[in-house]
Amino acid sequence: MSNAWLQAFAMVFDPTTLVVMLGASLFGLFVGAVPGLTATMATALLVPVTFFMAPIPAVAAMVTATAMAIFSGDIPGCLLRMPGTPASAAYTDEAYAMTRKGMAEVALGAGLVFSAVGGLFGTAVLMVAAPTLAEIALKFSSFEYFWLVLLGLTCAVFISTDRPLKGLTTLFLGLLVACVGLGNPAAFPRFTFGNPELLGGIGLVPVMIGMFAVSEIIRYVVDAHPQGLIVDAQIGNVFKGMWQLALKYPKQVLRGSALGTAVGALPGAGADIAAWMSYAISKRFSKEPEKFGTGHVEGIVESGSANNSALAGAWIPALVFGIPGDSITAIVIGVLYMKNLNPGPTLFTVNPQNIYAVFLLFIVANLIMIPLGFLCIKVAKRILRVPRDVLMPVIMLFCVVGAFAINNTPFDIGVMLVGGLVAYVLEANDFPITPLILGVVLGGMFEENLVTSLIKSDGDALAFFGRPIAATLGGITLAIWVWPLLRKGFGWRRRSMASG
After folding, report:
1. φ and ψ at 268, to 5 degrees?
2. Contacts of 463 (CB under 8 A, 6+ apart)
3. pLDDT per residue over 370-422, tens digit each?
4. DSSP assignment of 63-95, as one string?
5. Which residues, other chains included, contact 15 with Cβ-Cβ below 8 Å and sequence gap of 6+?
6. Residue 213 DSSP class
7. 66 near 318, Cβ under 8 Å?
8. Is the model's pTM score more than 0.90?
9. Which residues contact 290 (CB under 8 A, 6 or more apart)?
10. Which residue, 193, 329, 338, 408, has most beta carbons within 10 Å?
11. Could you give the 3-state DSSP secondary structure of residue 475?
């Protein structure tokens, strides 16, 4: 075993890191189990706490809390028919129907066990794919990075949402936010309105806390619906019958895990889309499709594997290229920069022990999910009865303190509040905010590589296709943009030919 791996083991199994993982696990399980509080919100709320941690414990907190939150979102879905996180929404009706049939422990057990299996599968892919991609990425120039960032932004608009026009609108809004500050390369102030606080640009972390935590609080304040009633179901041994399910549905577990990892690696997609796609595929290829929707465990097995494997998949582009796979890794990238763990291929060559530590953190987080998730299920009814009137002010307090602590300035609190209000208004009108987040995160990288490439090529646009990988990435990107127009054109031609 190399020295780097030994250092990684020492960092991960340090008592401080293990205590942080235990605390983050309990926090993630609690947040995920409360309907309306998402895994992304759990990550955003953890950011201020990571200020006081060393780099590896900080990453450990992020990895553990999100993995736990994604699983525990299944619990209120099963008992209340209210998914704790959007990643659990795909099979909430199925799980609730099983609860009504007296099979709550099977639904919860399948969610727990196959989430851990999917998470370990995604981690294995991350361990194999990330170093290989990093070796390739070392040969990238600004042309390849330009197309890669543009491809990521394109995926966020066309693949992660069924409303591309609205996605495009929020993407441009995110890019506009990224333009605030000193321009590249002339350092001319843009959209600063004479305010010195804006010269450094709008902080990513206050925006994230606002968009994912404050917007949820606003949604709760304006929501007049009462808290849901818990089904009084007896929950026994949730592990009973899981081995039989694994033997009965091995193909579904493998397919869900593979699909989740692949979807997670797409910028802007994430666990929510992975779970929905996986549930639909499970029903499509099932031998018993008529049982779906009536309390059938097959869809839970497959989509439960998918949503947790997507978490590890999202880290592949984040670590190798600095491009977030979802909103959670967008926040994590901000923390990595704060901890001087700048994402990119050089991270694999300069500090390999840190990358190996991230791999180990994923493995440990998915393994401890099983006993801690079991305990969470046992106390789930008490968690679900926590009054929201008490919980929400506490979360708001955390948000304010966290936003202020970044630069010790009230300006960031204002940024956070504006971010929360904007996200609430956008989502209330069915505008997806993931493209906006990616625009904010990737806007600077996009501009830097565009300007650098233009300077290198002396303004020659053909130079953007002059290298093989750049030409391939450019071709794929342009094809995604042009394909909807071609499809409409072909459809119009077919209708014209059919009508006469």
Report:
1. 90, -10
2. 143, 453, 456, 457
3. 899 888 888 876 776 677 777 788 888 878 887 887 778 889 899 999 999 99
4. HHHHHHHHHHTHHHHHHHS--SSGGGGGGHHHH
5. none
6. I
7. no
8. no
9. none
10. 329
11. helix
